[in-house]
Amino acid sequence: MNNKLINHLKELLKKNNYLDLSTFLNVILYNKQFGFYNSINFKKNKLIGKEGHFITAPEISQLFGELIGIWILQLCRKNHFYNINLLELGPGKGTLMKDILRVFSQQKENIKIKIHLLEFSKVLKSFQKENLKKYCHELKWYNDIFKIKDQLNDNPTIVISNEFFDCLPINQYKFYKTKNIFTKKIVRLDENNLFFDEKVLEPEDIPFISNIIKNDFDKLNDETTIEHSPFILSHINQICDIILKNKGANLLIDYGKKDPYGDTLQSVFKNKRSNLLDKIGESDYSSLVDFRNIEQIIENKNLQHYQLQTQREFLLEMGINNRIENLSLNANQFERRDLLSGYERLVSKRQMGNIFKVNCFSNKNLVVPIFKL
Ligand code: SAH
Predict the structure, then answer these.
(1) Whether residue 118 has its Cβ less than 6 Å from ligand 1
(2) Hey, which of 89, 159, 167, 233 would you mutate to test ligand 1's pocket, going by the most ligand atoms within 8 Å of its Cβ?
(3) Are residues 117 and 107 in the same domain?
(4) Is residue 369 part of a domain?
(5) Which of 2, 182, 265, 337 has the fewest CB neighbours in a 10 Å radius?
(6) Domain boundary at 227, 243, 274, which?
(7) Same-domain check for residues 351 and 233
């Protein structure tokens, strides 16, 4: 347990009586002094990787980042972009960006890239600096999405993210259909312990949540959990505004589904699921991204979104089979075995292939490789 963080939470709960789930998650993940992203000892690779809390696609295999690099290169070629901003949200150790830049280092056209990184954690920033310095592109860090748009030049901007949106804090609501009551999940303090509770929704908050479920009303069961992230909303809105201003596209990879239903919040400590309130400040929290909600935000912004693909479909369409054959030609038997097991994890329907999805949106009239309208 992270005692300083727990004490800080208890103080907040004494003052405020309760915290919304999203406020609670925001504090435990992002508090500047004691939050998970700044207090854990990343130096021992504790966050991302085989020894850490979780492992991500770019850390599993170079194939992932290289194919995204090829997608970005094709997008630049098709739209005659020679100077771009490439913005990554939550770059982790910088591995995805490194693999993309390696692809760009072999291009013939000399497309120039300015790199922008949204990263909250100081320790991960230092990993990123170390990993990316040899590619000599201009690098700029931000720790707040709201500060990016006004600092960007006017060049077309491509925004990418992998496993970023699943970390953002969510709220959970419950719909008691037979009684026609909505509640929201909150955290309270009982003598000395934190616990989850439910609070009946204030009348002024009901239209918002009724709007989310309106087309599904007949299908919903009693006591359905509904998830919504105010942070996803604000981040997607900001990206939309950047693309409206600069032109460009967004490629978002995450695990998720096309509805807001079900309790999907989980905490993971050292690659194993933990109880949500047991390892506060030491576990990573995530939830399934609701891609339907993201598509609605985009539609309201007059941008174009494309059909959601699974990670499997995206990687196969981008030619992962040819790529692995080429890489295998120059690999020894151990490297070949690693390549194949990485391929299996990324593409197999039983592993990451189906549950991970790829969302793409862009300004209208952009030519976007492989995605369908
Ligand atoms: N994309 C990486 C890392 C995913 S982990 C990979 O695929 O390996 C999530 C990343 O997002 C970490 O770098 C974390 O520090 C960062 N992050 C999480 N929430 C953030 C926020 N609100 N603002 C900025 N960075 C954030």
Answers:
(1) yes
(2) 167
(3) yes
(4) no
(5) 337
(6) 227
(7) yes
Domain boundaries, position 8: 3-39+171-227
257/321 same-domain check: yes
pLDDT digits (tens, 9 = 90+) for 296-329: 999 999 899 999 999 999 999 999 999 999 999 9
Q: Are residues 138 and 188 in the same domain?
A: no
Q: Is 256 in the pocket of ligand 1 (CB under 6 A)?
A: no
Backbone angles phi, psi at 300, to 5 degrees: -70, -15
Q: Which atom of ligand 1 is nearest to the CA of 29?
A: 19
CA distance 37 to 120: 7
What is the number of the ligand 1 atom nearest to the C-alpha of 161? Answer: 1
Residue range 2-34, pLDDT digits in tens: 788 999 999 999 999 999 999 999 999 999 888
Rounded CA-CA distance 177/186 in Å is 20
Closest CA to 170 of 256, 250, 241, 239: 256
Smallest Cα–Cα separation from 163: which of 84, 28, 60, 281? 60
Residue (of 139, 187, 163) closest to 60 by Cα position: 163
Ligand 1 centre to CA of 325 (Å) is: 31
Average pLDDT score, the chain: 93
pLDDT, tens digit, for every residue of 186-207? 999 998 899 999 999 999 999 9
User: Is residue 254 within 6 Å of ligand 1 at its C-beta?
Assistant: no
Distance (Å, whole) CA 301 – CA 369: 22
Residues 129 and 195 in one domain: no
The answer, yes or no, to whether any atom of ligand 1 lies below 6 A from the CB of 119, is yes
Question: For residue 372, is it within any domain?
Answer: no
Model confidence, pTM: 0.95
Closest ligand 1 atom to 143 CA: 24
Residues of the chain with pLDDT under 70: 1, 40-53, 136
Whether 124 lines ligand 1, by a CB cut-off of 6 Å, is yes
- Residue 367 located in a structural domain: no
